[in-house]
Amino acid sequence: MKILINLSAMLIAITCNSQLNNTRIIDKNNASAKIGDEGFFFNNSSLGIAGYEIPKGSGLSTIFLGSFWVGAEDQNGVLYLSGEHYSSNPLNQLHSGPIASSGQYTSLDYSNQYQESIWKVTKLEINTHISNFANVGYSIPQSLLDWPGNGDVSLGVVGQLAPYVDNNGDGIYTPSDGDYPDVRGDEAVYVIMNDQSGTNPNSLGIELHAMFYQFSSAGYFNNTTFLNVSVFNRSNRNYHNFKQTLFMDFDIGNYSDDYIGCNIANSVAFGYNGDENDEADGGGPGYGLNPPCQGIVSLSHDMYSFCYFTETSQLQYDIYNGTNGVLWNFMNAKWGDGSPWLYGGLGYQGSSGVSNSPTNFMYSGNPNDLSAWHESNVNSPPGDRRGIFTISEDGLSAGSSICSDYAFIYDKSSNRLANVQNVINIAGSLRSLYESQFVFPCEVESFNAIIEEELFTFKLFPNPSTGTFSIHLENLPINGKVTIFDLTGREVFSHGIAEKTTEISLPEASGVYVVVFQSSQGSSVQKMIFE
Length: 531
Hints:
mainly beta, Immunoglobulin-like, 2 domains, 9-stranded antiparallel β-sheet, 7 helices, 31 strands, 12% helix, 34% strand, globular
């Protein structure tokens, strides 16, 4: 079982600012994920062990730890960077709570409200509240009462903080008036962090909001944890060359026999076992034969770069004892010494099999292709694998924000290399579903709100259905079209509609589907259940 050797460094970094790493667990589907509010996620920092268990209750995990990095340059080329990694350097920190006025971070009022800046809420709690908030005797769940819809402006916190549905439009989050958190999925954990309350002289003055959420569903949704990230620039600086990175320590069961790779077309990076058997590790269980593949896919942005790194004395590969400049090199597709990543071999100049062609993507070949560039083709021995997954924006101006969406995807339905291919396919399906612009919008509005909102009224009946149903439109459609997706993102039906009422038959359908109607007058999305 892998133990975090540098846990003491993490704890030193955390306690430097007299803050605790508060945690919540999201486990609505087959994955159990531990989330923290000090920049780290998917790690049990109190024990120094992995925090992304899948299947939940199995004691097996595919991710040891993840964390956020954010970096950018001002108009004069000055670098600002904040992030978390295994290091004794306490300057690169994200801390719990929103941006506040200078001097307020050490105040009792700020500590009481924001030292623990992590909240968990379920869709069941929200739906029950919507139906009952006006009823005598109804007790509002504490999770809804605690939701930070409004910031404490007396501390210099912004007035509108975490997203919520404002039932009466007064701009004040009041659950007793019918207001409720605006979250995605069937269960969500929401975290607010900042990079200003510590001692980092190169902080950006950003507030990072992270929403981790899951759906209780069938198919690969049952093995998926989604992540929405919003970065708010609360400083007075305009930033250029903005980079947002997820630091990922993949451990596929036994941490000592893994490989890592990526697929450019589907913006997905993944960790997988280096052989067909994931043996037990130091007394902890392994996945055994046919070990799984764990991936992370960017839904809102194309992957800008992906790279592996190691803990070594060789500067080009090492980030742990590096300066902000070294981290920035890695975020911009360069080695720690500033040289470019190169296609082939180990990606570094002079290594066997390397070319002179720069690349932003290490080991981008499909491991199922014997001639492609992947770890097993460069005689790289399996081992502990860590990587950085980066997206890019041209800039982040003062007062603006950037939103991004990700999904952590998993497959263990076949042998190890087939599982890699399945993760690549799942990434493609999710990106197609996302790009349809009807689900997973990278906005404040939640997935559930979009699904349930009727932008152009239509009815489905019967719903639930045994296979045959009708779609009825209030008005005669112009250029009407209906498309139906299953929850894997696969299109199962598409046809033009010219009548107010049209009968549709899907005799093999079972479970929950998404029905999308489009026309010149508008569009709408609804859920359909087949029994």
